[in-house]
Design brief:
Layout: E1 6-13, E2 16-23, E3 27-32, E4 35-39, H1 44-54, E5 64-68, H2 74-82, E6 88-93, H3 96-103, E7 119-123, H4 126-131, E8 137-142, H5 162-171, E9 172-182, H6 187-195, E10 198-205, E11 212-219
Length: 220
């Protein structure tokens, strides 16, 4: 008999109920409005996002990296594993409950990544943090919901529009890296990324139906 999912906590949000669910000892889900956002059983592409985004920083003693959002903590864990002791990682998460979950029942999944002394947490809108950064970061890793897609092509999209990408470009130091997780290839987004001044590439990561895309933009 299959072990049922148990809801540990439910939080109201404008997008619907945000829920942390658990099954057994190690299986966790975060859902919103009934839709699965992330699962402890499938995080290969999230790991790849951080690995690929941090790879160009090899050799730097004290890179500054922004990670958004937090989720189950896998992107943060992979970034920390790829970065030197002198790195400083700012994690920006909109919902404080997610931060609490990653410090509580989810902590074993990421090796308690939030306790790493290299990490600082900001509970904030990451678009605003990026807009105020101005040359602050060596890498920005965006792991947000669906990533760029047809619905994010409007001119005022806070993350993937031409204006948003220009702000992200300005938030990076010379040679800095933008890594973006997506559910599927979005060619118009790639064109906007290049138009914003990034040298671009992409790769597919995952298995079976969980194959996702990682976009890499390098500031010249």
């Amino acid at each position: 008999m299959a072990v049922p999912w148990r809801t540990l906590e439910r939080v109201a949000t404008p997008e619907g109920a945000l829920e942390l669910r658990r099954r057994g000892e190690r299986d966790f889900l975060i859902t919103i409005g009934g839709r699965v956002l992330m699962s402890s059983r499938a995080h290969r592409s999230e790991d790849a996002l951080s690995r690929l985004g941090c790879a160009p920083l090899a050799g730097q003693k004290a890179p500054r990296v922004l990670v958004s959002g937090l989720g189950l903590g896998y992107s943060l864990r992979a970034a920390l594993d790829a970065l030197p002791r002198g790195a400083r990682v700012t994690v920006v998460e909109l919902n404080p409950h997610v931060v609490q979950w990653c410090r509580g029942p989810l902590a074993p999944l990421s090796g308690n990544a939030l306790a790493d002394p290299r990490v600082e947490v900001e509970v904030a809108d990451v678009a605003r943090v990026i807009g105020a950064a101005r040359g602050r970061f060596d890498a920005i890793l965006l792991d947000l919901y669906e990533g760029p897609h047809a619905g994010s092509r409007r001119r005022d999209d806070p993350f993937y529009s031409a204006a948003a990408l220009a702000r992200t470009h300005a938030a990076l130091r010379k040679g800095g890296v933008l890594a973006v997780w997506g559910e599927e290839i979005d060619t118009p987004f790639e064109r906007r990324l290049a138009a914003a001044g990034f040298a671009t590439s992409r790769t597919r990561e995952g298995r079976g139906s969980g194959v996702h895309v990682i976009y890499i933009g390098r500031r010249g």
